[in-house]
Batch of 2 targets.
Target 1
Amino acid sequence: MNVIAFNGSPRREGNTDILLAEALRGVKERAGSVTVYQLSTLNLKPCLSCGHCDDTARCIIKDDMQEIHERIRSADRIIVASPIFFFGVSAQTKIMIDRCQSFWAEKYVHKKPVTPGPFGRKGLLLLVGGMKRNGKNVGFECSEASVRAFFRTVNVQEHATVAFDNIDEKGAIIRHPTALSDAYKAGKLLVAEIPEGGSNK
Ligand SMILES: Cc1cc2nc3c(=O)[nH]c(=O)nc-3n(C[C@H](O)[C@H](O)[C@H](O)COP(=O)(O)O)c2cc1C
């Protein structure tokens, strides 16, 4: 089973980092190893909207996204973790998502969607925002819409979302009554179909 995770926060040991680590603890009980991409440390240029992928189904930009494209192609489970920045996902997360326009072209223009493996393809979205919202949280809604579009483009058939508001100070997520256990459980659930003692193939 191939599991990949994207950490879209530039703050090391921040809230997204901590939440993702807990989810991965749940994942690793079954899935063995996971590849985590710390997006802020990679060389990722934004989409140029050049149209090259409409013609070829491949991205013309040569940077760290080539490896990510290949890993997405073979992934059984994909985790996206992001802080809310200005009511959406972080720029680091959004650059990675936009660079998946080549998958969009592959699926909708070239009619060749990436095919899930024997475990299907599922996703998990982790979000943390600093603002306190009672009821509607526009930051979560906008982020959900972007990541849902990404997941559907790369043929993630279903995903769960775990989101926490009112978490601002670095590390504050640790004091939340349920966040860490919720993330851990969501990670476990993500790989629940893998047989006990799990395969990493
Ligand atoms: C540039 C920037 C923009 C932000 N915009 C929002 C926002 O629109 N809504 C919100 O709830 N929190 C916002 N925040 C707060 C972060 O989401 C919050 O501090 C979060 O816990 C950061 O997670 P991290 O520690 O993983 O980086 C913003 C923070 C930064 C640095």
Target 2
Amino acid sequence: MAYDSSLSAQLYERALEVLPGGVSRNTVLRKPYPLYADFASGCRVTDVEGVERIDFANNMASLIHGHAHPAIVEAVSEQLKAGTAFTLATEVEIRFAEHLVGRNDGFDKVRFVNSGTEAIMGSLKAARAYTGRYKIAKVEGAYHGLYDYAEISQTADPSNWGSEANPAAVPVAYGTPPGVLVDVVVIPFNDPERAIAILDEHKGELACVLLDLMPHRVGLNPATSQYVSALRDWTGADGSLLVLDEVITFRSEYGGAQEWYDVSPDLTALGKAIGGGFPVGAIAGRADVMDVMNPLADTVLFPHSGTFSANPITMTAGLAAMEMFDRHAVDRVNSLARRAMVGIEEAIKEAGASASVTGGGSMFRVHMKDTAPTNYREAFVTPDESRRLHLLLDHLFDAGFLMINTCAATTSTAMGEEEVDALVEAMAEGFARIR
Ligand SMILES: Cc1ncc(COP(=O)(O)O)c(C=O)c1O
């Protein structure tokens, strides 16, 4: 690495000695080195060089109130003094479960875990335990965390993704057991005919169909109601479950993005925003399905535990954050995101840029494509698009904005129209520069 006297460069040199690639999560990697956060407040983060930026990344869509919200800081500080984790239950986990159950009629019961990955893994295992089947179906390209089964096809590329009518089950990690590839059925997004034709080949075999209603890596488009209904009807008739991954999209409406549709899933995996800034996951759903985890049953179909599950720090922060994320707050962050999308579309038009924007709720994503992609294959980033996307991301970064590394963004209650308009203006400059 060329010599660079910045504090971040020095920290990264140390990090390279002790962390693979110098990072603990690949999403923070930037070239030539990641930046290191010093402190943050509201929608602004200051790095160790003293540079302040407006945060549209919100820790990968997980912060709905920005950073260090006073009410969350106060509630958590009180709980810190009273203890952080016990081999005992706490009242706050009941209060938080009551709150979440009150947000969505389909949530009869809730089980807390520590990450979205764990929520997805637990949901798939619950579906298997309930149905007595072990295969699952998932959407090509959709990211659901690290569980072997849930990550299949997430990084498929033109060299291995197979035909559109029959997408291949492509592993992500080397060493994925070959049996996993046989037990995961991959379906295309927002293509009910092709998806149902594939599922029909597996009647009676699937524990569940796993669906993110607005999958980020698949292009960040809301699922069509025809698609969601087709999957709901098919799973209902088949005796398999519909599991929704609302780890990101729960922030889209008071009861999650599922409010956009006239269907109710059997299980919903939650995470990110519901932790109020702390690690979290949850499985919520129908009482009879959730009961596979019931330790009081004669036969416990899915024994489930976790040392830090429902720890009172996360529960306290999550409850405080979600209580403040009422319908009014949800509408406000959503309208800020809509304003950003409209502004970015205009900026693209004005600059004549080869770009487009997709999104819904409080999240949006910029693509370096003339036409907005509608599925994973269309959203797949070509080398030239990647080059231009990185130029845009670097420009936004230098202009004082933090984005998710796919050029996606989320709004938070800590920002207002001023911050959104500033981002749109910086985007417009970026589009004018990048050809
Ligand atoms: C849709 C979706 N599901 C699951 C996960 C996994 O969540 P976690 O990173 O908390 O394990 C993510 C994380 O980005 C996600 O975006």
